[in-house]
Design a protein that fits this description.
By secondary structure, this protein is α+β, with helices and mostly antiparallel strands. Helices cover about 30% and strands about 25% of the residues. The protein is globular, with a radius of gyration of 22 Å.
Length: about 450
Amino acid sequence: MTKILHIQPSKIKSDHSIPIAGYRHASNLILAASIVLPETTTRITNLPHLVDTSVMIDVLSWLGADISNREKNAISINTQNLIAMNMAEQQLSAKMHGSIYLVPALLARFGHVNFGKSGGCQIGASNEGGERPINHIVEVMKAFGADVNITPAGGIEASAEKLTAATIDIADFSFEKDKISGPLTSGATKAAIILTLAVTEGKTVLLNPFLKSETINLLEYVKSLGFIVSYDKDRLEIEPALLNSKVTHQVISDPSEIITYISLAVYHHVRLTLTHITMQKTAIILAPELELLKKIGVNFFISGTTLSVGLSEQINACDVEITPEFVCTDHHPFILLILLMANGKSHITENVWHERFQYIPELAKFGMNIKKTNNSVEITPQFPHIAKEVILGCDLRAAAMLVILALKAPGETLITNFDHLYRGYEDLFDKLAFLGASIQVEEMVDAS
């Protein structure tokens, strides 16, 4: 069954409100971490209602987890009765982003793990078929004392009689020596935090840790469990302590959904209010993005749990660096979308996922000319003036950006390979329809 998204040019309504869901990257990390501590029951709230989240819960249920008090955006989970299974035979994990963090979690719980391929958007190196790297996860597990091998099928086998406290410099996983770059620093930090949950003696130290949204939310969960946690941008320390038997953890609001709807409001020149935001935590996490948006002239203000986007008088051209420490790589397609309305040429340099620019050829199908050189693009202000070709959704964030742009194209746009959107956005099409977007999903039976 093939699905095609039919998008008609639409007038987006102004002065409406959109609720922001919980962050799937954060929730799947919490679900994975819950595996390690069978004596603790965790109540997770603000859980996003997404395909990725549902698949992760199904995997944990398959392993034997007790899932109770289940609501649309909340569950209770206890992993006391988990059974060590051969995850290489479990096909569900290949269907979701973040399943790679089941590897350190299962190793920490059972002392061994056999895992197949993980899922997520294929934005890895083109010479590796776009598959996401796993060597950094392997090296982190070795630092904690595990024996690890990559299987011929591209999976991971690992074992350890006991995990021991480690000191790891996350900068070792950077693509460049003089600055933190590349996607591996994030995964290495999160894998190390999960492994630390099984360390019973000593202090684990992470130098130059990746401290962005989902990582900070994970550290909050680790604190609530009873661990002693301290960190700043240069150093993260975690020590074991007496654990709590019951904890409640609130998943942070999805920062990428916030940036998505900000870009929608700016690009379509409407006022929009975003609600139900865990603002105290999220404003800190989104500080680089919010600072950039102010710099380029986006009109917004924050009050309580809401962020309101006003009408922007002028968007200023700007050169933007995407790094693990600054603007998040997931947000760069939406920054580009906003800069398409700027008062001059802008540039974006991507220092995390260099293949994130796979959507540039799709913009060309709209008649748009974006110049790409290596891991940078030059953005000349322009609007789509063609809408006849089928557009490829590429990855999750690119697909969302292309949908927003297509709503301003001069005719019907067809988008394929957009299933990412069900993994990453809660009720996206319903929310867009509420705002006046004309979008239809057509299911077609394959000719074969």
